[in-house]
Amino acid sequence: MADAAQISPIQDFIVSAIFDYTVVVDNYETFLIGIWNTITLVALSLLFGGLLAVPLAVFRAERHPIFSPLIWCYTYLFRGTPLLIQTFLIYYGLGQFEVIRDSFAWPVLREAYWCALIAFSLNSAAYQTEIFRGAIEATPFGEVEAAKASGMSRLTMMRRIILPSAFRRALPAYSNEVIFMLHGSVIASTVTVVDILGAGRTVNAKYYIYLEGFLAAAILYLTLVFLISRGFKLWEKHWHAHLRPRSAASPAE
Fold first, then answer.
1. CA-CA distance, 231 to 90, in Å (whole number)?
2. How far apart are the first and last CA of the chain?
3. Rounded CA gap, 220 and 7, in Å?
4. What residues have CB less than 8 Å from 207, skipping those under 6 apart?
5. What one-character DSSP code corresponds to residue 103?
6. More confident residue, 2 or 176
7. Closest among 221, 126, 145, 227 to 183, alpha carbons compared
8. Is 177 exposed, middle or buried (0-12, 13-18, 19+ CB in 10 A)?
9. I need a labelling partner for 43 at 20 to 30 A (CA). Which of 49, 51, 71, 230 fits?
10. Contact (Cβ atoms closer than 8 angstroms) between residue 68 and residue 59
11. At 63, is the secondary structure helix, strand, or coil?
C-alpha cells in the first residue's frame, strides 16, 4: 500500500485544480461590474468609432485630394500600432503635459475609463474606415449608373444607394471588428478599469488563487462572442433576405 504522505501531494494537486464555482458566485457583483464596463466600453467605442468612420470612409473612397492622404495616415497609424500602446499614450502620456492638466479636458483625461474609451474609439474608427471604404468602392457599377440616370445628386446617391448597399456588404467584416474589439477591451484592465478580465484578476488576488477568476472571465467572453455571432447571423439573414434562392412557384392548375 502506498504511503499516505506520498498520496497527499497528488490529492492536494487534484483538489486545487478543481474549479471552485462558489468563489465566482460569492463575488458575482464584481463580475457584474466587469460585464457592464466591458459592454459599455465596446458598445460606445463602436458607436463613436462608427460615427467617425463613415465620413472618413466616404472621403477615402472619393479619393479627396486633401482629406484622403490625411485619413490614410490616421488609419495607418492606428492600425499599425498596438492598441495597448495607444491606451498607454493617452492614459499615461497626456498627463505629462501641463497644458493638458490645466485644460478643461483634464477631468475626463484623468479618468481611466474615459481614456480607454477614447483609445478604443479612435482605434475602432481606423478599422471601420477601411471596412466601409472597401464596401463603398465595391458598389456595383450598375447601381451607380442607375442612380445617375434617375437624376440623383452625388449626396442623394450616397445616402440612398451607395451607403445602404455598402453597409450590407460590410456586415460580415464588421461582425469580426466587433469581436476583435471585445477581445481588445481586456486592455482596459491594464489601466485600472474593472472589466471582465479585471474582475477575474480581482477575485484571484483576493483569494490567492489562479484558476477561478480567469476561467470565469473566459466563460463570460465566450458567452458574449456567442451572442454577438448569433445576433449578426440574424442581422445578415434579415438584410440579405433578397439574395437567398427562392423556390419556383408551382404551375397553376
1. 32
2. 86
3. 35
4. 23
5. S
6. 176
7. 221
8. buried
9. 71
10. yes
11. coil
* Residue 214, C-beta contacts closer than 8 angstroms, at least 6 positions apart: 197, 200, 201, 204
77-84, Cβ contacts within 8 angstroms, sequence gap of 24 or more:
77/126, 78/122, 78/123, 78/125, 78/126, 78/127, 79/126, 79/127, 79/130, 83/119, 83/120, 83/123, 83/184, 83/187, 84/187, 84/190
Cell 472571465: give the residue: 217
Lowest mean pLDDT among 15-29, 95-109, 214-228: 15-29
3-state secondary structure of 248: coil
Grid cell 467617425 is found at 52
Mean residue pLDDT across the chain: 87
Q: Which three cell numbers stand for residue 79?
A: 492600425
Domains of the chain in start order, with CATH, are 20-238 (1.10.3720.10)
Convert the pLDDT of each residue in 132-188 to its tens digit.
999 999 988 888 888 888 888 888 888 888 898 899 889 989 999 999 999 999 999
Residue type, 167: F
User: How many angstroms separate the most distant Cα atoms in the chain?
Assistant: 93
* Rounded CA separation 205/209 (Å): 7
Residues in the chain: 253
What's this model's pTM, rounded to 2 decimal places? 0.85
Sign, CA torsion 193/179/175/137:
positive
Residue 120 neighbours by CB under 8 Å, 6+ apart: 41, 42, 45, 49, 83, 87, 181, 184, 185, 188
Residue 37 above 70 pLDDT? yes
Alpha-carbon distance of 160 to 138, in angstroms, equals 16
